[in-house]
Amino acid sequence: MFRFVHRAFHALRHPVIFTTLGGLILGILGAIGTPMTMFKGLDQAAELLAKPGDYSASQLTLFVVVKLLALVVAAGAGFRGGRIFPIVFVSVAFGLLVNELFPSVPISLAVASAAMGMILAATRDDWIAMFVAIALVGDLEVLPILCLTILPTWLAVTRAPELLIRQRAGDRRPEWA
């Protein structure tokens, strides 16, 4: 979706117009997703982990969808900022959703696996993905499983397009990376 959203915003040609439109869309998404989906997401991820039973599967699904849409809109509209903290929030919400739908999957494994996979997909950095996954859950018992799954996960995402736009030399329009 990132490629299409970026092209749509930048087809408007004027940065004030497309960033204003991006801000309007982000405001609407924030109203839909509640304050839980606003801002960077690190504090909100900690709040989710502190009270995992307080959220239903539908709320967690809403958090995941809204935050992913907000990340794509913000990047497509040219807002500066990182993608790690929003991805951490999405992965925590998704891991808790997996645990909610499949209670036999331990929370620590679900959250760590979601974090590792999503961060790996967003950054292509296996060490950061593994470190953040373990740091989020604080449970070293999931480390062997993550070590077994990181290589196939990395191989699956390594050829997928990154969440970056690169401009070719001499080209006026950026090219999807």
Provide structural commentary.
The protein has 177 residues and is mainly alpha-helical. It is 67% helix and 3% strand. It has a two-stranded antiparallel sheet. Helix 5 (84-101) runs antiparallel to helix 6. The longest helix has 20 residues, at 57-76. The mean pLDDT is 83.
- How would you state the average pLDDT, rounded? 83
Strand order of the largest sheet: 1-2
Low-pLDDT runs: none
- What level of helicity do the residues show? 55-70%
Structural class call reads: mainly alpha
Largest sheet report: 2 strands, antiparallel
The radius of gyration over CA amounts to: 17 Å
Strand residue content: under 5%
Compute the separation of the termini in Å: 13 Å
Number of strands: 2
Element-level helix/strand string: HHHHHHHHEE
Overall morphology: globular
Descriptors:
single chain, 177 residues, mainly alpha, two-stranded antiparallel sheet, 8 helices, 2 strands, 67% helix, globular
